[in-house]
Amino acid sequence: MPALLAAIRPLAADRYNYVMVIVIPTCTDLTILTRWSMLLAICWSCRAAEAWQVTEVERPANPPAAEMTAPLAAGEEIDRLLTDLILSAMPHSFEDTKHWGRQAEKRTILPRLRRDDDGGLETHRPRELVNHGDWHRVKVTLSNPQEKFTVQLKNIRAGTPGEILFDIACRSSLDLDGRHAKWSRGVQLYSIGVEGRADVQLNLACRMHTRLDLQTFPPSLIFDPTVLNSELQIESFRIDHVGKLGGEIAQQVTRFARSALDRQITAQQEKITIQLNQGIEKYRDKLRLSTARAAKLPWTDQAKPHLTPDIQKSLD
Fold first, then answer.
1. Where are the alpha helices (DSSP H) in the chain?
2. Which of 140, 175, 186, 266 is the most buried (most CB within 10 A)?
3. How many structural domains are present in the chain?
4. d(C-alpha 305, C-alpha 158), whole Å
5. From CA 205, how far away is CA 220, in angstroms rounded?
6. Are 275 and 151 contained in the same domain?
7. Whether 292 contacts 314, CB under 8 Å
8. Confidence of residue 84 (pLDDT cuts 50, 70, 90)
């Protein structure tokens, strides 16, 4: 028996020889007890071989935890809300084509034949519309608003009882892409492109009512802002590229681009106030902060003296 186990053990250590080693001889001279002893020995050998072949996998003692995004501070949350609100109300691009496509009437050079009222033939020189005059167009686009658009809340002051007044200053950059063409009775004399940049500031005059909601725990403040007026100002303006022509033509193109920008600024600021107040309604559910978070706002100390006594107490 020891000799038989010694021969079987190496085979059992090989996982691919399990089928071979579990085949038990059926010789008539082996007793049932001997067969069971051999089977148990083979099983023990297989288990031992598996144990010998197990290698311990080294695992890190403290697996790194998933990175968690830190919650925004109250001031950052309000700044982001104001930025999203104002950007959603402002047009990200607009185009002025008021002076693009001018035409004038022109008589044809060669006369044409036509029948008169009596059925006879007569010659005439009909008029036709042809391109003529100075053509201008300019497209204005917000330049990378996610990085170059800044919002600053300032000049907090008292309004009527229960309200505060404040101003918001927003700064952004604009990219200009325009074209100037000169036509004379259907003949194009030249056409040049122009590229430039402008820095603008949007000033908002605002009013806000604040009330205390005691039905939540902890109590929260509900803000109800309204934009009273908006004003767009051009802080700087420059032309970076004007085709291949210079001199008087380049100066004329620069004046055209500036006047077109002024027109668009005037036209857009009349719409911004309405669009901002409409946007406030969409953000209404976000205009709420717990008193604990409201107390940490960077402008709370300035606004606190102008709030009602119950709100002042909740912010202490």
1. 2-13, 18-21, 32-53, 74-89, 145-148, 248-282, 291-294, 300-303, 309-314
2. 140
3. 2
4. 8
5. 25
6. yes
7. no
8. confident
